[in-house]
Amino acid sequence: MLKRFIDRLRGRQPSVSKSTMRLQVIKGLQHGISRRQISAPASKVLDGLQEHGYQAFLVGGGVRDLLLGATPKDFDVATNATPEQVRSLFRNARIIGRRFRLVHVLFGRETIEVATFRAHHEQDLKTASTNAQGMIVRDNVYGSMEDDAERRDFTINALYYNIADDCLYDYVNGVRDLDARLLRLIGHPDTRYREDPVRMLRAIRFAAKLDFRIEAQTAAPLTQLAPLLEGVSPHRLADEVDKLLGCGHAERVIALLEEYHLLPYLFPDLVLNDSSRRLIEATARNTDERLRIGKGINPAFFYATLLWHAVQQRSRQLHDQGSALLPALQQAIQQVIQRQQVRTAFTRMLATSLREIWEMQPRLEHPDLRRVDDMLQQPRFRAGFDFLMLREQSGEKTAGMGAWWHRYQEATAEQRQLMLDTIIHARKQQGGGAPSKRRRPPRKRKPS
Ligand code: ATP
Ligand code: MG
User: For the segment 182-238, what is each residue's pLDDT rounded down to a tens digit?
Assistant: First the structure.
């Protein structure tokens, strides 16, 4: 009871005791956020917590994006209530996470993420800990709102909006950086990246998505510390890769990942040359455009692009060592997928989709003419065909089969027959119909 009373008092007047941090309170008219812009579920959570005497603020991407005039992807709430206390207040709430415990409050399709104020880990070594590399392996030490601001990642992500007094609380000069379009880590960059190497990827994602410059000291350690990504759980990396490539600014993400030499730590088998770069850029542009016009994206597609040259290289090696073309390709695919999953543990469904896209390439380039219409009916045809088109657009030699399939789909029955006849004729001219790459023994002609 007493604690709740003290907390309530503190809720009205956040403490400003830390010498390094100066709280700025920005009033309604100056910041421009209005209650109406906050989703009904987020308002319910904020009101519910405050009605029970807890502090509760909107924080993170929701506040940042509203201040930038963009539509927030989701709303995050920070509170001094513990996860158990939050859960007890809402019917539809569940506690998630181990390294970092949070409450998800579910409202239909919208989930509000509620985090309890965290303190810096040095303050209680029993409940939070770092490993030998300085990485935080548990981060569940609770603290005040000011402590919480200090342990967030970037200044622009540490702005707290209070729905009750319509004020913005800024301990870290986040508003200044937002105005200057600067992405700045809170605290010492080297330490903060060591605590959680994923912050390096978050830096790239936010810089790309918001079109912000990465402040010099925040950018400086990136390349040197990139190998720390090897210590991150492959599930977390897979999630982060999904976010990076699906953020709607993949083209810039790829350029920044390359600039800071982070790509090899996400995709160790990635082969970078002019041809693969063109393919990756074409895919990134295509993905960004699809997202811009509200179309869905297939996450397998990016992996297919990024690792295609690795698959081809490995497949050629195996073929040179004596495997036939198709088994060489299948084995190469298997090996590349297995190696990639050690780094980013993507789902089995994605792996299957990836395998299908790659395996379909030779079948699209050298189709079995009796099965062309069957192939069109296959549910996975589209992804394989789209990938072939991108390869073709990026200058790979595909004998124009991407354009051929494109025309074939649009053609009438009569035109289709004509297109097939043209291929039959071309194959005959090449000697017996076998596509040149498929080392089939030439068919013996019957003596006439
Ligand atoms: P998005 O628009 O992608 O949701 P976001 O900034 O809200 O961006 P979240 O992953 O939803 O990102 O995290 C919410 C907030 O939690 C962040 O804004 C940041 O304050 C804090 N946060 C998230 N991940 C970290 C991290 N690894 N280290 C420190 N703080 C973090
Ligand atoms: Mg968020």
Answer: 999 999 999 999 999 999 999 999 999 999 999 999 999 999 999 999 999 999 999
Q: How much of the chain is in helix, strand and coil states, percent to nearest 5?
A: 55, 10, 30
Pocket test of ligand 1: the residue of 57, 157, 200 to mutate, having most ligand atoms within 8 Å of its CB, is: 157
| Contact (Cβ atoms closer than 8 angstroms) between residue 149 and residue 21 | yes
Closest residue by CA, ligand 1 atom 13: 60
* pLDDT per position as a tens digit, 114-147: 999 998 765 444 555 677 777 776 677 888 999 9
Q: Is the CB of 153 under 6 A from ligand 1?
A: yes
Q: Is the pTM of this model over 0.85?
A: yes
Catalytic residue numbers, as ranges? 74, 76, 153
Ligand 1 atom with minimal separation from the 76 CA: 14
Domains of the chain: 8-187 (3.30.460.10), 280-429 (1.10.3090.10)
Q: Which ligand is nearest to the CA of 115?
A: 1
Q: Ligand 2 (ion): which residues have CB within 5 A?
A: 60-61, 74, 76
